[in-house]
Amino acid sequence: MNKTLLGKVALVTGGTKGIGKSIADKLQALGANVIVAARTKPQENLDDRHFIAADLLDSESGENIAKEVIEKYGKINIIVNNAGANLSPSGGYSTLNDEHWKNELELNLMSAIRINKAFLPAMIDSRNGVIINISTGVAKQPLWDLTMAYSTAKAALNMYSKALANEIGSKGVRVNVVSPGMVNTPLMADFIENIATSNKTTKEQVAENLINQVGIPLNRMAETEEVANLVAFLVSDDAKYINGANYLIDGGSLPTV
């Protein structure tokens, strides 16, 4: 494999499992020095990656992570704001209280804003940087009964990303969004299992129903490595003229072009 990211320093938030782990694996395979930030360190070997324990709901987390990374590596080239989750109960507006809305916005929007703000001075000084904010297809096509607050927070992330790309593109820093659809992750597995338990049905039936509800022409969920491959392209020099874009990777489920 070509070491196209050799010498680059990359941060992946939520980089210990699911999509984040696959992104971290891919960037490291391409030669980058990879730092992962998450609440808890996993039991398995991180292949000598620099791990930072951080609760991204903490308003000081961005500054703390940036300080540690810049002190150790002296620079940052790539940020992948992957940390995020649908934390709220299903059922639509009546099931959502202020705490649900606050938690969704903090994790899915504000965590990325804080990380980027803390690192951007170093990126702008070097006129070299790429930021990828991981969003979701349901920010464009929300499932009101399942993802109302989550979709709203990610839609705000999309708008923020475009505004930031417009502001700092001339300063040597690119910003893009990757929006996965349904992905085969541990979080998705838990989500499906919870629905199956509540509805007294099988996980396979729930997964099939969700795929049909979302309407995925490829008739399957994405694998995490497929999302990682797209991110790896966007942070590379092969994508150096791509800025302010939002790439859907959803198997064709969004019914518009």
From TrEMBL:
Isomerase as UniProt keyword: no
Superkingdom of this protein's organism: Bacteria
Pfam families: adh_short_C2
Keywords: Oxidoreductase
Gene3D superfamilies listed in its UniProt record: NAD(P)-binding Rossmann-like Domain
Cross-referenced InterPro entries: NAD(P)-bd_dom_sf, SDR_fam
PANTHER family to which the protein is assigned, alphabetical: 3-OXOACYL-[ACYL-CARRIER-PROTEIN] REDUCTASE (PTHR42760:SF133), SHORT-CHAIN DEHYDROGENASES/REDUCTASES FAMILY MEMBER (PTHR42760)
Family of this protein: Belongs to the short-chain dehydrogenases/reductases (SDR) family.
Protein name, per record: SDR family oxidoreductase
Top-level taxonomy: Bacteria, Pseudomonadati, Bacteroidota, Sphingobacteriia, Sphingobacteriales
